[in-house]
């Protein structure tokens, strides 16, 4: 497993994990799940909070699953 971590301009931590057969990106957005929506367009994940763009980050390949739990966004895809 390889792990990368960086903070966006607003200090939001984005963690990327690369495994043999999949990758995963975890973002601590710290908002209620029902206020959060995510869309992926041309390799960029766009995170919306209350329908306003909060954060954007690149994804390393096709997205298979997007879920949120207690303010943590998890995006997964196969290698």
Q: Would you mind describing this structure in some detail?
A:
β2 and β3 form a beta hairpin. The strands form two sheets. The protein has a five-stranded antiparallel β-sheet with strand order 1-2-3-8-7, with no helix packed on it. The protein has a three-stranded antiparallel β-sheet with strand order 4-5-6, with no helix packed on it. It is built from no helices and eight strands. 11% of the residues are buried. The model has no long low-confidence stretch (mean pLDDT 88). The chain has a single domain, classed as Immunoglobulin-like, CATH 2.60.40. By secondary structure, the protein is mainly beta. 0% of the residues lie in helices and 63% in strands. It comes from Haloplanus ruber.
Short description:
The protein has strands at 2-7, 13-18, 22-28, 36-41, 44-49, 52-58, 65-69, 72-78.
CATH architecture: Sandwich
Largest sheet: 5 strands, antiparallel
SS strand fraction: over 45%
Overall number of strands: 8
Proportion of helical residues: under 10%
* CATH level 1 class label: Mainly Beta
Question: Roughly what is the average pLDDT, rounded to an integer?
Answer: 88
Radius of gyration: 12 Å
Across the major sheet, the strand order is 1-2-3-8-7
Order of helices and strands: EEEEEEEE
CATH fold call: Immunoglobulin-like
Uncertain residue ranges: none
Class by alpha and beta content: mainly beta
- Approximate shape: globular
């Amino acid at each position: 497993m390889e792990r990368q971590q960086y903070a966006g301009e607003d200090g939001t931590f984005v963690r990327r994990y690369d495994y043999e057969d999949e990758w995963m990106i975890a973002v601590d957005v710290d908002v209620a799940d029902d206020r959060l929506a995510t869309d992926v367009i041309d390799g960029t994940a766009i995170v919306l909070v209350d329908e306003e763009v909060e954060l954007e980050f690149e994804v390393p390949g096709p997205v298979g699953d997007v879920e949120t739990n207690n303010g943590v966004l998890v995006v997964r895809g196969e290698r």
